[in-house]
Amino acid sequence: MNEDRWDIISNILEPVYENGRFDFRELVKEMNLSTEKLKEYINFLSGKQYLELENENGKKSVSITEKGRVFFRIVNLRKKPEGKSELAKS
């Protein structure tokens, strides 16, 4: 997976990780992606069981699974500059 895709995945997961659940329309507004491209990423992430799609009374939302929380932390470890590891501070 190239660097841009990791960034996009991280940017999708971040608000969902922080809030537990995120409205799909709000996620579209927050991301700089077309609705179709965002759907592709969300379908990919839900297929890997990192996200769950919910449709309640016609309102679509995305929630993060425990597996997704772990994946988000791993993806963000990749983004830390070398020498700045949280583990090194312990």
Taking pLDDT < 50 over at least 5 consecutive residues as the criterion, the unreliable ranges are 83-90
CATH class category name = Mainly Alpha
What is the CATH H-level superfamily? Answer: Winged helix-like DNA-binding domain superfamily/Winged helix DNA-binding domain
Distance between the termini: 31 Å
Strand order of the largest sheet: 1-3-2
Overall form: globular
Quote the average pLDDT. Answer: 84
How many domains would you count in the coordinates?
1
H/E element sequence: HEHHEEH
CATH architecture: Orthogonal Bundle
Radius of gyration: 14 Å
Major sheet summary line: 3 strands, antiparallel
Organism: candidate division MSBL1 archaeon SCGC-AAA259D14
InterPro entries: ArnR1-like_HTH, WH-like_DNA-bd_sf, WH_DNA-bd_sf
Domain ArnR1-like winged helix-turn-helix: 4-74
Protein name: ArnR1-like winged helix-turn-helix domain-containing protein
How would you sum up this structure in a few lines?
The protein is an alpha+beta fold and 90 residues long. It has 4 helices and 3 strands, in the order αβααββα. It has a single domain (3-79), classed as Arc Repressor Mutant, subunit A (Orthogonal Bundle), CATH 1.10.10.10.
